[in-house]
Amino acid sequence: MLEKVLELLKNAGVYAWEVTDKKTEGWEFYFIRHALDQNRAKSVEHIHVKVYQRIGEASVGAAEAELHPSATPEEAAQLVENLKAEAGLAPNRIYSLRSPEEAHRAPRDSAAVDVPAIAGDFLAALSALPETETEDINSYEIFVSAVTRRFVNSAGIDVTETYPSSMAEVIVNARNAGEEIELYRMYRSGSCDAAGLRRNLARTMAYGRDRLRAAPTPPLGRADVLLSTDDALAVYRYFVARLDPAMVLRQMSDWKLGVPIAREVRGDAVTLTALRELPNSSRNRAFDREGAPIRDQVMLRAGVPEHYLGGRMFSAYMGLEDSFQPGNLAVSGGSRSAAELRQGKWLEPVEFSDFQVDPMTGDIFGEIRLAYWHDGEKTVPVSGGSVSGNMRELLGDLQLSAETVQYDNWRVPALTRLNGVTVTGIES
């Protein structure tokens, strides 16, 4: 079907087109406790088609849809005609697609993905977890795939790569004499990060135990907040969003190249880098979804923007010919150790019902399910209340640990300290 779609598009008389064909071959396992309940192999294909149409002399519109691989030639032809009509209804300023010269700079060879070996690593890691009578694994599911992605566009790009994609979903139970709770975790990766998986699940079991004995969060007013879990990624995604050409051109971000993002820095200035590869990442790709080659590139150096990175349309409008959509991202460690950042009084939320950082306003908000309150002498688990603040106000005092940790396609400081966050408790 793919070749038929490409033939139809070449003869469709449209301004431009893109096709992504993604084939996934994988294994899936479903466990109750540590007993295999069922397993299966999967083989699926997704064909995504995008059509561009000229609208007048200076505008172009786009429409996209997925074509089922079992579609008939008539259905494929109808899809292309529908997209042509829809693309004519959404005008944008004209721009060109990625060129073959750009795509050919990306590595072309992909290493073979050993699905059985990766699955074996997950099985070994999850079967070796240290469980107790009060904290254990309820169930888990493992998904391991080899993904082959081919991208073709009307400008002449035709590139293919294969990469691993994995996911583990785990439910942890914790109980005491009168209560039992469940904690859900989902881990994404390329190959298996066995050490990281075991470390995170061991911490999750401890969180379950402490949640059962947590006291109400006191009304702290302004307090320093430590982020030591993947919730910290919401903070660092704020930086990525502010450096996206789409945000800048729409005036949703006022960050300018060469201009510090904070007026005064009393803590650690952030250095953010897009990376081609990270160990075990699910985003080790040679090219982005528009065919642009992915490379190592500093986006923010010591709090000063150096490069905007993002999709082709807004990058082209800004004249950014070397822009791309990052896959892996890294935030450099700071000037202090994690132990030094734990000095003084602090609140360390480790379970939120939700935690977000608004990319436009910088507003921070999250409801606490479990946190640790350290009053300068002792540490106690607490629950309830919320944290709030604004990144614009917190940037100058941001403190990052020298140690770093990886969460799938992110490598970030193991501890992020936000000074002066508003903490609302639940005591009267």
Please give a structural write-up.
- The chain is of the alpha+beta class.
- The protein folds into two domains: 2-210, PmbA/TldD fold (2-Layer Sandwich); 216-428, no CATH class.
- The protein has ten helices and 21 strands.
- The protein has helices at 2-10, 73-87, 100-103, 115-127, 194-211, 232-242, 245-249, 312-317, 338-341, 391-394; strands at residues 16-32, 35-55, 59-67, 91-93, 135-153, 158-175, 180-189, 215-216, 221-227, 272-275, 297-301, 304-305, 328-331, 346-357, 363-374, 379-383, 386-390, 399-400, 404-407, 410-413, 416-424.
- The strands form three sheets. Strands 8, 9, 14, 15, 16, 17, 18 and 21 form an eight-stranded mixed β-sheet that branches. Strands 4-3-2-1-5-6-7 form a seven-stranded antiparallel β-sheet. Strands 12-11-10-13-20-19 form a six-stranded mixed β-sheet, covered by helices on one side.
- It is globular and about 75 Å long.
Q: Which helices and strands occur, and which strands form pairs?
A:
Layout: H1 2-10, E1 16-32, E2 35-55, E3 59-67, H2 73-87, E4 91-93, H3 100-103, H4 115-127, E5 135-153, E6 158-175, E7 180-189, H5 194-211, E8 215-216, E9 221-227, H6 232-242, H7 245-249, E10 272-275, E11 297-301, E12 304-305, H8 312-317, E13 328-331, H9 338-341, E14 346-357, E15 363-374, E16 379-383, E17 386-390, H10 391-394, E18 399-400, E19 404-407, E20 410-413, E21 416-424
Parallel strand pairs: 8-16, 13-20
Antiparallel strand pairs: 1-2, 1-5, 2-3, 3-4, 5-6, 6-7, 9-21, 10-11, 10-13, 11-12, 14-15, 15-16, 15-17, 17-21, 18-21, 19-20
